[in-house]
Input
Amino acid sequence: MAVRAVQSAIADLFESIQRFFIRLKIYVKLPPTEEMTEIMVDVMVHVLHVLALLTKEIKQGKISELILLIGHLFRLIFP
Output
């Protein structure tokens, strides 16, 4: 896998996370509903899980198709 492709996938991942947190900042100003709270917590848990996987892969020097897959997943979840 080309280094540029990996860098691009990581950049896409962080941009998706950034967009989510920008929206989250707006959502927390609204009166919370139980359903919305559950969704926000679920998404934040997934974000942390993905970051943990990414950190593990980087530490092990195994940046592979996982990075591209994560990037694609985030583009689907956070259009």
About this structure: The chain has one domain: 3-77. The CA atoms of residues 57 and 63 lie 6 Å apart. The radius of gyration is 14 Å. The mean pLDDT is 75.
